[in-house]
Amino acid sequence: GRVSAGDAVVVLPSARRSTVREVLGPDGPLDAAAAGQAVTLTLADEIDVSRGDVIAAAGDPPEVADQFAAHVLWMDDAALLPGRPYWLQIGSRTVAASVSEIKHRIDVNTQDKLAAKRLELNEVGYCNLSLDEPIAFEPYARNRALGGFILIDRQSNATVAAGTLDFALRRAGNVHWQHLDVDKAARARIKGQTPRVLWFTGLSGAGKSTIANQVEKRLHARGCHTFLLDGDNVRHGLNRDLGFTDEDRVENIRRVAEVAKLMVDAGLVVLVSFISPFRAERQMARERFAEGEFVEIFVDVPLEVAESRDVKGLYRKARAGQIPNFTGIDSPYERPEAPELHLYADGEALDAMADQVVRLALR
User: Fold this and answer.
1) pTM, whole model, 2 decimals?
2) How far apart are the C-alpha atoms of 263 and 191, rounded to whole Å?
3) What is the pLDDT of residues 93-108, one digit of tens each?
4) d(CA 289, CA 246)
5) Among the options 18, 130, 209, 276, which is catalytic?
6) Could you tell me the domains of the chain?
7) Active site includes 276?
8) Model confidence over 284-333: pLDDT tens digits?
């Protein structure tokens, strides 16, 4: 492509329009510039052009979208799981993204399409991508610069995948945020409290639900408006279609985080008691809330203590192979690295732990 002074241009994804006033090269003004040249463009209008934005010819702009069909080459030892949050980098633009669905895996030798719920190291899949904000793009077959991307792990900052955008998925193009006059602050004000989520995480049998129940009783006695989301209870309704594979665990936490956010928007103090074994999903949940609204509470006990409290016999069944993918036995639990509150539930009294959480909730 070429650009000249006087050309009509559009800045994407904001769709702001202007005209090129001047093209500046290393040695001064130029009549025009072509692809590959390093130049500075001066626009006729004062509009915001941020890092990662695309300036295109007004008559032939790229598309703008936040949902895509894409081919993904997975390059990490840990599997790609739908719903897990990553950073997507395309050109100089970086946005939050997740794989919403793996349509199929591709056998690189035969090109056969194989059913898959995850992608392992060096596997190629055809996936749907969901971004938190729209980007300017063109299909990779037409424009490598605006169609090729990488995925970055949000915990380690390591590159975990490379991919190509095929086309935009337009199913959500007519869905917009609706402005509401009564907002979270108004709902909280009428309740006289600060809404937040208290996220209890730990092994099965650690005492999460017991502590959360005691905390809610104390908050309720003080006149607080609360709701307790318990892992077992939620699986009877909202998440009754989910199992205990890593993929289903990711979706389990995604749904609960969205429900908790709605409840915080309603002005409630929300208690969430879930094993939530993966750091990435707990971080994903945290990022849905404003600064200070998400309080991670690690209910910490040694595995042998959790097993000794196993009134339901779950650990015994898991060790016998009757319950696959059981956290702590054949599925990992990733300990929080910096929780807001660390409860050592094998040595502290229940009342003392509940009081610590209440003080944190009311501060």
Assistant:
1) 0.73
2) 13
3) 999 999 999 999 999 9
4) 24
5) 276
6) 2-57 (2.40.30.10), 63-168 (2.40.30.10), 184-362 (3.40.50.300)
7) yes
8) 999 999 999 999 999 999 999 999 988 888 999 999 999 988 999 988 99
